[in-house]
Structure formats: C-alpha cells, structure tokens
Amino acid sequence: MLSGKLPLHYNEEDLLSTPTAFENQLLEAFSCMYSEEISKIFTKIDEQTSSNNWHIYKSKIERHFYPALILSTALEIDKNYIVNLCAAFAIGYSLPVIMLDKSLDSNTVLNSTSESFRDSLKLIYRANHYLIEHKYYKAFQCFNQHYLGVMSSMEREVNLKFKIPSINTVNQYTENVLIHYCYYRSECHYFSAIIEGILCQTRYKFSKELKVYLGIFGLLRQLSDEIADVEDDLQTGLVTLPVLFTHQSQDLSIELHDYWKGTVGFEIFKNALLNNDGYEKTYNLGVELYKISNKMKYKLLSKYPIVEHLSVFLDWRFAFLNRLRQNNWVDIRKSH
Questions:
Q1: Three-class SS string for 37-101?
Q2: What is the pLDDT of residues 244-298, one digit of tens each?
Q3: Over the stretch 42-100, which tens digit does the pLDDT of each residue have?
Q4: Domain range list for the chain
Q5: What backbone torsions phi and psi does residue 160 show, to the nearest 5 degrees?
Q6: How far, CA to CA in Å, does 130 sit from each of 47, 126, 137, 147, 242?
Q7: Is domain 12-326 in CATH 1.10.600.10, yes or no?
C-alpha cells in the first residue's frame, strides 16, 4: 500500500506482525518529508511565546502537526500557510491542553487563580491574536470551539475521579455505521482539532459520513491510550475501559478503594485485568473500530481523496494497539 504521497509501503499484515517496525518507519518518513516545516513551526512558536518552557513538550507537540502536514500535502496547501496555522494551533490549543491535562494528572485544582489556568489563557489569547492577524477567521472559530469542548471533557473527567462509571454500551447508528460508543469523552469529531481547523479554513466540503470516519480515529486513540495508561489513570482516580470491563466480571469496588487509600498496589489490578480479559476486550473493541474504518475508507475514497492520506493515522493507531498486545499490554515507548 502506498498511503498518499508518503514514501511508505506496507500492508495490514505489517501492522499485526511487526507494529514497532512500522511505527519506526512511519516516524522516519514524516521526519524526512516535513523536517523543514517542523523547524519553521518551532521557530514561530518561540517568537510568539515569552519563554522556552514549552520545549519539554516538543516531541509530543511535533506529533500533533503530522495530520495537518499530511493534509496539507493532500490538499496542496501553501507551506507558509500551513506553518502559520500549525504554530497558532500549538500555542493556542496543544500547549494549553497539555498543561491543563498535566495539572489534572497531579490532582491540582483548576480554577481562575491556578497558575496553569492563567498561563493557558495567556497562550490562547496570543494564538487568537495571531490567527486574526493572519486572517484565519474560520480556524480561529474552530480552535476555540474545540478548546471549550476539551475544557468540558476535563470537567467531566474531574467529576468521574475516584468513582466507577457505568459502561452500558450504547449502539449508536450514524450513517448506517455501527459504533460502540461506550463512555467516550472527547468532544472532537473531526480526527483532531487541527484537521477541522484546516478543513474549515480551506472551506473543504465534507459529509456526515466523512465526519464519522474521522471521528473513529478519536475513539481508537482513546482505547489504545487507556490500555497503555491504566496504571497512571488509576493513580489519578480515573477508572478506564480495561478496568471497567474487568469490573463486569470481577467486582473491584473494594480493591479500588483500598488502592486509592494506598493499602494495596497496582499488581492486584494487573492480575485481574489479565485473568478477566480486561485488556483483551478493550483491544477487541479497537479491532472492530479499525475494521469499520477500513470499510468506510473504500466507500469514501472516490469522493474524498484526503481519506487515503489520513488513513495512515488509523493504521498507526492499530499498529500501536498490536504493539501493546505483543508486549503484554506495556507501552515500551512511553518515555518517547
């Protein structure tokens, strides 16, 4: 398979059997294609921010740009245009969200007096000024809408801490496509906020069916992250899908409360997750979503060529799921 103009050949078997090699190949391809644009984006972020504290998030933020850069290739968007848009996106969306998420993970209370909240607002203001200055009015609207959605998701996450939410699976039919919705928290239905910003800014026409296809990536991303982050999430009081699936077979109420009190360790949950297929059931849900996305891809390709370019990110997430499975549900690249 040749995905768009990526110098990358692979098939589905590679995602199943050699997922780590595929991920390495993909990152190398991105780096070769877009090193100049990434460098320019980082320079612009430095120009618009008052300190270089954000550099600790550089590798994470860089990955946020890949969908936008791939989309710019598909739509043949001017390089300077996409560099400006990505810089604004990083300043006004990526950095604030990462900072707030980090604060929530450390159980810091977020309010108008907290340092993270104030710093985030400063970045959002700076990015909004930058977008207006460059006349990216549609992107300005999209980014702010998404930021409000993320804040709403974070508020719900705070309210769920140290509780066991319900996972009565809801079968949601959208454009004749069955999606297991579960308790999915994200407000983003367009693959990522930067993708919607570009599509809106370039006035790209897309259907509800394409919107569903792009939304599957968000679901797949959440499922894979929840497998990789089970222990970290539990430490901050969040009970996610692998634990919830396990809880359906083995009541974990007492163990969870003991864990949060510090009287038992994570090992008790790891054994329960393995014995009750908590990881496996979450993985299987991801496989089903990936299959749905592939069926949709071939239906949408003739009308929406961008699907060929963006599908590589669904393949990447599927490879990530398979890498977790191969490594006993441990993310061996977590420090990267």
A1: HHHHHHHHHHHHCCCCHHHHHHHHHHHHHHHHHHHHHHHCCCHHHHHHHHHHHHHHHHHHHHHHH
A2: 999 989 999 999 999 999 999 999 999 999 999 999 999 998 998 899 899 999 9
A3: 999 999 887 788 888 898 889 889 988 998 888 888 888 899 989 988 888 888 888 87
A4: 12-326
A5: -90, -10
A6: 11, 6, 10, 16, 41
A7: yes
